[in-house]
Amino acid sequence: MESIKRIAILGGGPSGLFMFKRLLESGQTDLEIRIFERKKKLGAGMPYSADGANDEHITNVSSNEIPLLVTTLEEWVKSVPKDTLDKFHIDPNRFNEYKVLPRLLFGQYLTAQFDLLQKQARELGIDYEVYYNTEVTDIIDNPDQETVLIEVNGKEQIEFDHAIICIGHNWPQHQEGKVPGYFDSPYPPVKLALKLDHPVAIKGSSLTAVDAIRTLSRYNGAFDKDADGKLTYQLYPESANFKLVLHTRNGMLPAVRFHLEDSHLSNDALLTEAEIAAHIAQNDGFLSLDYVFEHDFKAPIQAKEPEFYAQIKEMKLEEFVDAMMALRESLDPFQLLKAEYKEAEQSIRRRESVYWKEMLGVLSFALNYPAKYLSAEDMQRLQKSLSPLISIVIAYIPQSSSEELLAMHQAGMLDLISVGEDSEVEAVSEGGATYHYTDENGEKQAVYFKTYVNCVGQPHMAYADFPFKSLLKNQTVSPAKLKFRSADEGQKALQAGRAVTQDDLGDYYLTVPGIAINDHFQVVDSYGALNDRIYVMAVPYIGGYNPDYSGLDFSEAASKAIVKGLFV
Fold first, then answer.
1. Can you tell me the distance from the alpha carbon of 173 to that of 170, in angstroms, rounded to the nearest whole number?
2. pLDDT per residue as tens digits for the range 460-513
3. Per the structure, how many domains does the chain have?
4. Distance (Å, rounded) from C-alpha 554 to C-alpha 109?
5. pLDDT digits (tens, 9 = 90+) for 265-291
6. Are 65 and 126 in a shared domain?
7. Which CATH number do you get for residue 562?
8. Ranges of H-type helices in 29-170
9. Would you say residue 110 lies in a domain?
10. Do 388 and 401 belong together in one domain?
11. DSSP collapsed to 3 states, 193-213
12. What's the pTM value of the predicted model, to 2 decimals?
């Protein structure tokens, strides 16, 4: 008789969707798959359901940029009832693969794809079951029995051979619920359906901030188009004093979404897994950040945009970042947004990429999986220099959101303040928060806002925040750490107050967010031993070793690596 593999998928959002798809495509039919979903619907997860979106929120990816599921988005739209499409102002005859969708509608697409995958499972004869409205409250590993127990709803325990953790976003609440007018995140966005007659402080300017802006702006005013077709914004009389004030460390807005030529972030010019492995072996076990920068960023640009390459070919990584940041810093953020909107509009119309920006996204994606092999020194360089540029350039504000931001700024209802690295937000018990920062003139400011929304995006969760406490208690999982190449640098970092530890051999390690995993996303215990029963592709909890959050592309690539580990 065949040996049945009992596999639990914890979370039925986009990550669980891709994991289920990979298992069905593996060619293995001796499977028992159980999917545990906290909500009553599969596929949408947090970003594409009411937990993360209202009608006004849109995706920042188009159909041609989405990894293939069962049917394409373009095919699916033609099957959607007319009243649903009318609600979102979608004409199926004019829809094509380059269009972006409202997030809630995209969530319906993902749910439909999960339905089709379940149909495939039945046709393949694979035993599967979905547990809706079921919360996984703990995971207990049994290495002696080579099994893992899944505890659901705080009581029942179910035995499996493998557990794949696909839980998604986590927005911790610190002051929200205790302090009126203080929001630790803008999610679920229905809580920001507020009519306000005062200025609102928003921390950050990422796509998370754009989500908050799209909601708050609609409850306090209206967008319209003038005779020239230009978008305008007008406050409602009862919100006469409403205004949004963005607070950012660098005084910048993200770049505007443009046409992506290499939509699935795969490129023949990139380093192969074998080349990376050979380099690591020849480099004392470390992946060099400069090596990846030269081969996965500069080299493709040399072939595709020789003129731009000529400008950057002699630049080291930090020099390149400084040059690109200097260009952005020299311009007013809204003037730059306007210029980039025009550039992106031309890029989309001509279907021509802004190649260096695209390759920056590719570089981030390429660095993500081998990041665990960076030295601690290089990880600190990545965090300090490259990551801030990447977070700005590849955020990809959609065109319509750019138009709304510009309209609000033109109307005097949206401002941006650069508050630097040492700014602080103080919750005020009576309500709201006070923003403390040093302004561009060196003057200390303390500005009170009756309403404050933290919009810095999904935080990297710490090791101690991992939700399955038995795995922590039994040291089945361990904190993610990176070794310092130089003991002197490790000692300096330790003295500077960084999260640095020293082992019995005298080597120094930098603790980075989340838990340790290997290349197959298997958890690693406190002794460095991998665990072939428990896999983690929950991005908030593996941010130290996987610093890039690339949404569906991440889910596609991570699920592929996990299947390789499962069926070796």
1. 10
2. 999 999 999 999 999 999 999 999 999 999 999 999 999 999 999 999 999 999
3. 4
4. 18
5. 456 678 899 999 999 999 999 999 999
6. yes
7. 3.50.50.60
8. 73-77, 82-87, 103-124
9. yes
10. no
11. CCCCCCEEEEECCCHHHHHHH
12. 0.94
